[in-house]
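tool_call: predict_structure(chain=1)
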Amino acid sequence: MSQQITTISFLKFSSLSNKAWGFKMMQFAHKGLAKVEGLAFYRLMGSGKGRGFNPLPDWSVYCLLQVWKTEDDAHTFFTSSDLIKQYRDHTHEIFTLYMKNISAGGTWVGKDPFEKGADLDPNLPIAVITRATIKWNWLLRFWKYVPTSQEALDGNAGLIYTKGVGEVPIIQMATFSLWKDFESVKQFAYKSKQHKEAIRRTRKNEWYKEELFARFQPYKSTGTWEGKDLLTF
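tool_result:
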């Protein structure tokens, strides 16, 4: 199997000046990220308010998704990169998950970035990333149905954390979700009436211009989120 790993980092900014810095870095961080050795793919994203998809921005939370050729490359970046040091100087919290890809389908900006790096262990936590570019003519109907499609997330005992993120507000959206085990994912994906209906409408109406679905096995974490290590639930 591939030695590739994926990291996802959530960055929380507290003060107004630091939030402004985080927003500015949505443009200026690309220069530094483009030069990182061993980085095969990355997306720097903003986030929406609350959980799941939300068209209203959350100016306090940003997300950095990175695909690495090896774990050593990731370790070098997070321990010695000038860019990550700058982020640490301006953030209230940074939480990073190290993950191995289990399966992936679809494309992200025309690429298939995730190589299989592990077989599924159904008893360990599972991370899921979905990403889509929504067609302009379906934007209103898509966003109108979003609150209904996410109802099954509320109070879901198997869900550890979820956040809606994206490169371009309203149009290019992604969700990250972390689950206690594979059974929790199955319960939501196949038994939630709202989620099943969302999939049916997506297929029938062809809402998306591009889409991707990927599952990962998280195996390590650094930092905290809301004062906790999300892998120790």
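agent: The chain has one domain: 5-223. Proceeding to next step.
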